[in-house]
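A protein record in our archive is deliberately plain, so that people and models can read it alike. The record that follows is passed on verbatim for readers who wish to inspect the format.
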Amino acid sequence: MYAGGEKEVKQVDAKIFGAFIAQCRKEKNMTQADMAIKLNVTDKAVSRWERGIGFPDISTIEPLASALDISVLELMRSERIMTSEVSREESAGIITDTLNIAKLQCKHEQKIAMMRVLLILFAGTNILYAIGKGDYILQIICIVCILVIAVIMSVVLVKNKENNQAKQTIIQMLYCGLTVLFAFALSRFVGNIIAIILIIANTVCYIRFLK
């Protein structure tokens, strides 16, 4: 039932967990905004949980179960439990699943932090390329760095295997393409200042998407 570390993590599937939250919320005739107010979080956070993009913070698990009028065990199992008795194994399972969610959430936050650093480096290198016109050695170094950082970002994205990976891949490719376009082409026509502003704005938008 709850033996084996890798098997335990699989028992808390983000998509199934999110679908169960959405089902229970709708049964209570609550909107995402209503539930967000009860839990003191944003409706965007609730939306992410229900779409299977990450898990609630561990401190939110019990209030979330209470708001949905279900037990913590039902929330962890993502299913209704008819019996009122909870066995010792099931109690241990609650603790295990809760810890697994905390680990997954921590892993997700670490990935987001790493991606933010890579995005800042990627944007900074593109800006350096844009303002380094005429210095061919600097521009060659920038091009190499841009390619390396782009590859690292792709590896981080693929390695973490998010449920919405296809969507994230498309958006990341779009971000990289626009940033390079602003730095390499647009800066020649509209000037460095506008190109830099567009690169920064593009990067901020993508970082907000990663939250």
User: Anything to note?
Assistant: The chain has a mean pLDDT of 81. The longest helix spans residues 88-131.
